[in-house]
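--- STAGE predict ---
source: upstream dedup step, 1 unique chain passed
mode: sequence only
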Amino acid sequence: TKVSVSLTHTVYCTQSTLKICFHGESPLDVSRMANIKVNHVSAGFNFTVISTTDGKVYSWGKGDHGCLGHGDTNPRMEPTMIQSTPFSFICYVSAGHSHTALTCNDGEVLMCGHNSKGQLGLGHTE
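--- STAGE serialize ---
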């Protein structure tokens, strides 16, 4: 079982299902991911990111500051594949408060989201 807990929700994956549970509510199946083999899950603040066993990344929830990695700040109500990583095999994901880190199998780290305190590691706060 893969599990991640944030201030707003919990996401977990068993061998056959991906579930999300907003605190105080019953778990919900993420039916769009029924045939996807999940490698890793991470719960951010009102958003979720997962990597699959074939190196793809999906994210959904609030898109504040671009934390979902889709190049905009729009929310996604269902898991949506991040298209900006077509040549990278993502093996690990980590969601913060309003930013996300994606680790590639070659060791490269891709970052997106809020950077007001330099949390993206870019050497600046823009």
